[in-house]
Every structure is written in structure tokens, then in C-alpha cells.
Amino acid sequence: MTTxxxxxxxxxxxxxxLDDTLSAxxxxxxxxxxxxxxxxxxxxxxRSTLGATRVRLEPAAEAGSVPAFADGxxxxxxxxxxxxxxxxxxxxxxELLDRLASASCRVVTSxxxxxxxxxxxxxxxxxxxxxxxxxxxxxxxxxxxxxRRRHGTLPAFAESPGRGSSPVTAATYEIPLPRRGxxxxxxxxxxxxxxxxxxxxxxxPAPEELVxxxxxxxxxxxxxxxxxxxxACVDGDVVTPADLDLPxxxxxxxxxxxxxxxxxxxxESVTREELRAVVPDASLDRALGALVDRGFVxxxxxxxxxxxxxxxxxxxxxxxxxxx
Length: 324
Fold this sequence. Notes:
Elements: E1 9-12, H1 15-23, E2 29-33, H2 39-50, E3 53-56, E4 74-77, H3 91-102, E5 107-112, H4 113-123, E6 131-134, H5 140-151, E7 156-157, E8 168-177, E9 181-190, H6 192-201, H7 207-219, H8 223-233, E10 238-239, H9 255-267, E11 269-270, H10 272-275, H11 281-294, E12 303-304, H12 310-320
Parallel strand pairs: 1-6, 2-5, 2-6, 3-4, 4-5, 7-10
Antiparallel strand pairs: 8-9, 11-12
């Protein structure tokens, strides 16, 4: 006889729904989010609500590092460190799944979204969880609240230099033509942030709205990325939308470096030893050098993803169709 797995209950990051999930009886909980999307806040809330023990799993976690789930509720952070794409690299993950199957207490785990999607496809990870809590992108209003909570007093807000009241501006581009040389063409440009803010209130948007609309668009609503972009770009008594930009370029770093980048994005922090299973020793230093130069990752061991490098990394890997 075969049985059909019960699909997990999908829950977004709403506080009331989260409390209902934690108070429900039975079943493990998975908290799934993009890197830097503030899983910590959800896990802190779960630990406090359940009176649970919190365990943080480190990069290159080995079999035997998984908690026993026998002494009361457990919150296990960064469970995406329990696998590696090499021979024997899934043993710690299998240990976790075995212990979840026999756990007698509430277990809350957290996962990087890209690892979760991959493992759900190749190892049926989602079958092990009754509840899946996903953290959606934040609105511009919530991004503004995040920045204010972190920095307190903010600079004054102003329109970008040369910006009028129109959402459409113009720019001149040089277009090279064979046998004729470059030709100057003036083209209209729609200010996406201006239009988005205008649609929200039907009035001419205030500079503050434009600033946070742009910050939200650049960060894809990710609070960790938004904070990193703000810290990198805002330095003075006045901030305009034009001051905000991604400090990390989106150029492709090459095949070996992109392969390494895909692993780092899916795990957020990876030891050099694990990365040697991805590219040969002779290429690893060059690959990491290319990623550091472009600002995708920091130096050191383990290799850690940079918050302001995440949008560029996602763009590179999406173009290669390497993300799950």
C-alpha cells in the first residue's frame, strides 16, 4: 500500500499566523527565507513563545551535530548547513530527517530559500514538515521602519538634482553605427520609483517616499540588503533617490566563480574545504578573487555572502539559470 504525503501548511511571516502555527499541535516547522531576510526575528519569537532551546548550526556541520529533540522544544537555525554537494555530503541532512520523524517535541528549523528549493526537489525535504513559514519581501513602508529602527534620526530627504515634477525624463545615448560612427539619440526614461509612489497616493510623491521606494526596489524588499545599501550610500545631512544604488556590479565572474557563487548564495557561508569539491584547488583562489573583487563575498574562511552583493549575485545566477 502506498500513502500520499500530506502537503505542508504554507504560512507567510504575519505575526498572528505565526503564533497560530506555533500553538498548533504536532508537526515540525520550517522557516524559509532569502539570505539576510531576518529569519533571526522569527526564530527569536519562536524560542520565546515555546520556551525552546536554540541551536545554531555552523558551516560544514557534520553528522552528530544535529540535536536529539528529546529534551523539549528546539529551534534549529541555519539547517542549510547540513548538506554539501559531494559524496557523503547529505549524511547530516539524513540524520536531521530521521530525528524529525521520531521527535516527540515541537521543532522549528530555518532554511535558506535556495537550499530549501533544491533539497525539496532532490531529497523531498518539504515532506518532513507540517508547516512552512515563508518570509515575503517587505513593503517600502516596512523598509523605512527598518531603517529608522536601526539609525534613529535620518538625514533630510530631497529630490534628486535636476528632477522636476514629471515621472519621465530624457537621457542622451551614443549609438555606434557601422561606417558612420556614433549617433546621439535622446530617449525618454520612466522613473519607476516616482511612478510607484505616485500610484500609491495619487499625489506628487514626497522625496522621502521616493527614497524608500527606490531602496525597496534595489533590495527587492530584503531588510538586510536594504540596510547594507543604505549604509554604503548615505553619508551626509541630505539623501536623494539618486544617492542610492547597488555598490556591487552585476558582471558575470566566469564559470568557476559562478559555480562557487551559486553554492555561497544557497548556504550564505561556506568553508573553503567544501568549495574545493565544487572547483579544483588551482581554480578556487582565482574564483574567490573574482568574487571578492566584484563585492559578492567577503574575504576569509568560511567564505561569506555580502548583503549588498546579493542582488547582483542573484542576477548573475538567474541569467545562468543556476538557481532553484
